[in-house]
Design brief:
The protein is of the alpha/beta class. It contains 21 helices and 26 strands.
Length: 642
Amino acid sequence: MSTVLSVRDLKVSFASEAGRVDAVRGVSFDVEAGQTLGIVGESGSGKSVTSLAIMGLLDENARVTGSIQFEGQELLGKSDKQMSMIRGNGMAMIFQDPLTSLTPVFTIGDQLVEALTAHRGLSKQEAWDRSLELLTLVGISDPEKRMKSFPHEYSGGMRQRVVIAIAMANNPRLIICDEPTTALDVTIQAQILDLIEKAQDESGAAVIMITHDMGVVARTADDVMVMYAGKPVEHAPAHELFHKTRMPYSIGLLGAIPRVDKVDKEPLIPIKGNPPLLIDLPDACPFAPRCPIAIAACVQREPDLVEVATGGGESHLAACIRADEIDDAGRIGGLPVYPVEKIQESQFSSVPREKRPVTLEVRNMVKTFPLLKGAFFKRKVGEVHAVKGISFDVREGETMAIVGESGSGKTTTLLQIMDFEKQEHGDIIIAGTSINGLRDRKLERELRRDIQIVFQDPMGALDPRMTVADIISEPLFAIGTPKKEVQRRVQELMDLVGLNPAHRDRFPGAFSGGQRQRIGIARALSTNPKIVVLDEPVSALDVSIQAGVINLLDELKAKLGLSYLFVAHDLSVIRHIADRVAVMYLGEFVEHGTVDEVFDNPQHPYTQALLSAIPVPDPDIERTRTRVVFDPETMSTKPATI
């Protein structure tokens, strides 16, 4: 196979007020035709900057050195006009957010035709015909009609299919995928990965897959490069990296991932601390402050990325002076690199479910939205049934999860509960109090103490102009807590969620994403609620930070006897944290039971399709699984095809 892309000692730096930011500090790799290189790491590790440097899309203030050779020609030093001849023709990129990748004022057809005529000199009719062929290839039905649609008229998954069609248009030799499935449902993610593989098969292109999802890497990558602080810290074939991991950071990333195929609920392995600021880094291992096996020699100089012996017979590089001491099971001296903490035994673990108090009960919840027509005088022409008569209860010390694709009604269900929406033919009962029976505004405020919510976006949920102390104390003052008691409670809550009480006067912007989510959890716990509603609480976090938040939620449930109502699209997280799960489809529960019953023996075809789409972070398992898709017309499953 021929080498499509060769990167040598790539360095990228930016000027900032605080000093020079060394975003990429010496990256080298090769990608051959038909092969896929997976690049993984936390936010700020340099993954995306590396890809943008290859495409020539960095800002003018970026200083780029080293060498980037595409099919033998050097890209560094080329003008933007010269790069434009290569971009979209020889190289293509699929970005994370398809809506911002597409121009909102042009139709899908215009954008596909432009991609073809700009590089291949096709006539308008030839480009139109090829565009129809591409839309059909990526699985978009009725392409003639869809060509005339605008991007906002497509769903997220369909928009990403269009972006892939544009990337495939000119049969590129290199396709760079920057988190192409992060914002998508698990079933849509599986379809998009199938499409990328199909695009690779059609063109024989080399693919660079940038992602934080190790399951996606296990499915797609031939080689894997793990980046930290702007440099590769481990680089090996996929099987080697997953089964003979030698860098403590890589071991931590794998240990931080909840797995859908694991029944035992052991604590996840969070990588404590935060990545370093990439300004004036000392000549030392950048991971040493977070590494559980760091020794004095680790801070004397930064280790080189060198060959390590694993007995696998393949090239395996790691940047760790203790890599040779680590065995295939991720142990050093017979002990795990990351000590496994025990989950605190819940006070309710020995109490049968039926004997525990009910903290939340939903009876026959229904929610419809009117369909209106008319520009000035609106008239009702129909109804959308968002929630169709669902019923469930949550017991003390229990986690109830609701899963399903976007549009299934999960968030509407949560909003009905949090809005205390009265039900015409049902009821919502919180801690024994009926919502339908509330007649007094004061009683409603009293009841709000018992139910609190943690939102998906920790930054969007916190007022940036308020200090941490003000954020946590706001609900306490709202319920009339004395000032002296509030101060004591704020300190107690910060300590409970693993934040330093000395940082109480800082603003949210001074904290990392995981710390901001901990602030949100502390605020939710301030009124001593009986049930906490969690709306995708970890989806915006890196896997290493996600693990710490999930462990914290487990610990708080055991310690305080909390009940959780948990909504997430990541079924691996649900498998790890939930006791019971309800699968929602078009506003109804199609399957409902204990998490082990539903995950190990799914009965409904929709549940079977959801579970088969979840990537498992093990290439041996992931690449031999049979995937099925749900057919809504026959209400059955069928083999997955593009």
